[in-house]
Amino acid sequence: MPELGIHSQLRRSPFYEATIAEGASAFIPYNEMLLPLGYTDPEAEYRRLTEGVAMWDVGAERQVQLRGPDASELAQVLAARDLSKAVVGQGKYVALCDHAGSILNDPIALKIDDDCWWLSIANSDVGLWARCVAAERGMQVEVSEPDVSPLAVQGPDAEDVVAALIGDWVRDLRYFWFGDAEIDGIPLKVARSGWSKQGGFELYLTDGSRGLDLWRIVKEAGAPWDIGPGNPTPSERIENGLLSWGGDCDRQTNPFEVRLGRFVDLDVPDDVIGIQALRRISAEGPARHQLGIVLEGDDPRPGHSVWFDVLVDGTKIGDMTNGTWSYKLERNIGFGLVGANHQIGDSVQVQLDDEIVPGKLTDIPFRVEDR
Amino acid sequence: MPELGIHSQLRRSPFYEATIAEGASAFIPYNEMLLPLGYTDPEAEYRRLTEGVAMWDVGAERQVQLRGPDASELAQVLAARDLSKAVVGQGKYVALCDHAGSILNDPIALKIDDDCWWLSIANSDVGLWARCVAAERGMQVEVSEPDVSPLAVQGPDAEDVVAALIGDWVRDLRYFWFGDAEIDGIPLKVARSGWSKQGGFELYLTDGSRGLDLWRIVKEAGAPWDIGPGNPTPSERIENGLLSWGGDCDRQTNPFEVRLGRFVDLDVPDDVIGIQALRRISAEGPARHQLGIVLEGDDPRPGHSVWFDVLVDGTKIGDMTNGTWSYKLERNIGFGLVGANHQIGDSVQVQLDDEIVPGKLTDIPFRVEDR
Q1: Of A186, A119, A10, A253, nearest to B123 (Cα)?
Q2: Residues A189, A250 within the same domain
Q3: What does the pLDDT read at residue B27?
Q4: Considering the entire predicted model, what is its pTM?
Q5: Is the minimum CB–CB distance between B185 and chain A shorter than 8 Å?
Q6: Which of A211, A237, A263 is the last residue of a domain?
């Protein structure tokens, strides 16, 4: 495979040099930054995440800051979920939709202050979208990218590590809530969140010059629990049903198709972008839905990071949007975005690059007994 | 340097396999696609471009299509240049600005039909921006990404190659104008354009399934002129003053700062995005301007694809936004985005990674006598 050039528009996170020192062997471009993808041994990273604790450079998870008198109004019109009762210190997972109800991004919206929100985004230019909406509607709000870089601590031992580092108060944080902290003069916001289902925290570093210090301090604090480097892990996140916007959605995917309906509030004000379309889709029922796919055979396939056709009797019924070897099921699994008339238990075939592999539709999260 | 992962969100152009076969050795992500960056011998590629003819996979130069009754109105409100007199078959280089007058992208706007435009874009999500503007203003226009992939033929011999391939009528095309063609059943639009100052054409392939056929046909047609693979070439484009949006601009750069003022029409309607800000900036004069920088010393430096501070007497006066070895000047050169009070002929210093290198400000395009 030819090399990808590391060029000027791919920025490095404050943790970059530490990830290199830890042996980061591959990166992907994400929000015009370099996101570490792995440290040479995917199974060891999976075991560390699911059985111990891992630290992740997710600095590429950029923050879009909305600040000004109309910040809360802008956050609300961007997000198809009721934010009116959110308080400072609370985060909410939201779908940002376009005017047709298709998902543009699925950030956590953090209420930083009465006049300030952060949208902690997946890989698309939410800042551009927010600036356009704010300006077109004449809102008094500044949209910017602050100096904020999350470092995730994930895994069953993550709470012990972060409590040892910051204090036992973090044990009382509710999911997606956050508080301020300082370690060795390093300013942080500490949130209970992260892109795994193993539990953990994200340390939002708010001084990019201190990235390597923070990495070292977390590593030292986690040493008693054998903390090690990691990154968002396809096997774990697909087993547990976490969506990858961009990976598992196309440009016409609405929240109801990919199990995000419970994060949509249809009674938000009419000026929320996409809400009319979402009400209609909700009433009519979405055309597609997302189910699991378990493939037959126990040979691990190379990472399926492209979409593959899902067939029934030779006819395409949808796409397998991401596939991966599941260490838990010891099968190749993936998300199926298939017509709403296809159901759990149905037999399907997936057209991989070189062969058609039989499989079946399952519920999400994946369970060993579904294989 | 660690490897960058080639993941699902980086699409391949229809010419990808041909570029691999030709020896493409590095790619950059560009509009979520893989753009070939080089074929192992930069000087040979420079010579081929400036003395012969080269063919470039610029499929990553995506088209944002505006189609519908309000397509021309949308094109106009997006572009701070008068498009009212453009006719079908004409392209115009335009700055797309935000409401503060900062450049979001600098595409060629091609009038495809009375109700259809293409914006042939640099590396930012113009489609997202255009969709937002259209929806917020209630315009009747569909914004989409059509199946269009440009293949550039560039260099002093490019006209002979394209005329041999398509017909002598292409010799009469004016700059940025285009016409329809078909080769071996492959549908194209042929434009006199391309991101070099060596002259040439871009063949807009409108059937992605025929990319490898088109590559082979162009290669065969160009064989008498020793055509070979190439790509946008930093040395050539900087010597000749071609702007790289994204490379040479930050998020606060307005057209007047980077020599694009002549492409701005201040008398466009008031609903054109950014025009009020641009009128004010034009009246007051921009705070920065773009000049050339020639560094002392004739040791080629590695590609400077990041911004470096430009100093006078130890005080920062701006940035060198891109630097490269110039084969023509046999010096390291770059664009300087510096305070408007600094002038051609001034001595400056540039803070590279490891040393401060003296240089001077020059006019653009660069001339051998300026070194």
Answers
A1: A10
A2: no
A3: 85
A4: 0.95
A5: no
A6: A237
